[in-house]
Amino acid sequence: MTDHLRQKFEDIELTAGHGKVSAFLSVSLGILGIFSALCFLFPSVLTTPELRPFYTQHYQTLYYTLLGGIVLAAGFGTYSAILKQNKYGFYGLCFSVVAAILGCGMIKAPTLPTLPYYAGFDYFVITLIILALVFIPLEGFFAKNKQQKLLRTGWVTDMKYFMLSHIGIQLFSFLTVMPIQYWITHIPNNPIVPYIQAQPIGLQFIELLVVVDFTTYWIHRALHEVDFLWRFHAIHHSTEHMDWLASSRLHIIEVLITRFIATLPIFLLGFHTSAVFAYLIFISFHAIFIHSNVRFRFPYLRWVIATPEFHHWHHSSEKPAIDKNYAAFIPLYDLIFKTMYMPNHLASVYGTVGYKIPNSFTKQFTWPFKKYVNRLKKRFQKSET
Ligand SMILES: [Zn+2]
């Protein structure tokens, strides 16, 4: 998407009465309908294997939900395009027609051959629907920054990050979790594992929080304090608008580094799969929550666990807040290592200081490498002259 086209979709005020809300709903449901219909058409390659047993059990319900979504997309699109003369409503109508064509006639549950590779189209659609249903009303009713629009500057870029991290779930785990899993299972008689697994799941969950948070505190601190690593993490900090979607803005290299190192203690200590799953779901949801545009302050609790207030200060561009509040969940680590910053008021300005980071997804991908590419270019030019 060109910069010009991206900017057209950003900073749109969803004011009632102009057909914008119905156009937004139509376009969103239409696009999600296309993704879902593709899942029904190519389940072997576009769905997550762990979720397939659920799909087989509830196939008809899911199929009728898809049809319902398409009908709603078409309805909102028709209203917006014809009655309100909104061109985005027309786009939504077109998307719903494409989704209907793709989704037509697939009533029978197909048999699923097991293929080694898949893309998490279903994971993207389901997660986006759940998070949008939770966070859009939450931020709407309890907004910290009431002026911030739903479709604020940078949302298109952040949505691309969200898509990539969900659709590419297998690729990410192939590059991070699997090598560790392979390596750890080849360590004979790890003495810690039976001791950890004998403990109740709840206790293992708390231990995971304590251990992984200690690891991620130091990865996060290194991402800020080592210049080479900071160039990748700066992409995450480049957002000037905090909300639930902003949590997705992470350079692929940062995702790989963080996941690889954070996964190490999980496998090395041999936590039970149930505790690990519960931990991953909880911490992923919590990570989104602390970025969200909400004004809750959680008296007392804000000193014990990381809250939106605590993490918003980490993203603040105010001088005293720079390189502070690294903990993902336990602020105590910041207190111990003297990186805590929690004044009495809430943070209000965000972004990187002293860097001009581009807004587009592709330019953000190449930005961290630019300094080194330019250095190489200069060296070549010097050696030629
Ligand atoms: Zn950071």
Any overview of this molecule?
The chain crosses the membrane at residues 21-43, 63-83, 90-109, 121-142, 163-184, 276-294. This is Sterol desaturase family protein. Residues 208-339 form the Fatty acid hydroxylase domain. InterPro entries: Fatty_acid_hydroxylase, Sterol_Desaturase_Related. The chain has helices at 3-9, 20-41, 43-46, 52-57, 59-83, 87-103, 121-141, 155-167, 169-175, 177-185, 192-197, 201-225, 227-237, 252-268, 273-291, 308-315, 332-336, 361-384. The radius of gyration is 23 Å and the shape is globular. 64% of the residues lie in helices and 0% in strands. The structure holds zinc ion. The site of zinc ion (ZN) has 5 residues, from helix 12 and helix 13.
Concise structural overview:
The protein is mainly alpha-helical. It has helices at 3-9, 20-41, 43-46, 52-57, 59-83, 87-103, 121-141, 155-167, 169-175, 177-185, 192-197, 201-225, 227-237, 252-268, 273-291, 308-315, 332-336, 361-384.
- Which hetero compounds are present in the coordinates? zinc ion
Overall mean pLDDT stands at 88
Count up the domains. 2
Rg is 23 Å
> Which secondary-structure class do the elements indicate?
mainly alpha
How big a fraction of the residues is strand?
under 5%
Q: How would a crystallographer describe the biggest sheet? A: none
The count of helical stretches stands at 18
Q: What is the tally of beta strands?
A: 0
For the record, give the distance between the C-alpha atoms at the N and C termini, rounded to a whole number: 39 Å
Helix-strand pattern: HHHHHHHHHHHHHHHHHH
Helix content: 55-70%
Name the poorly predicted regions: none
Spatial shape = globular
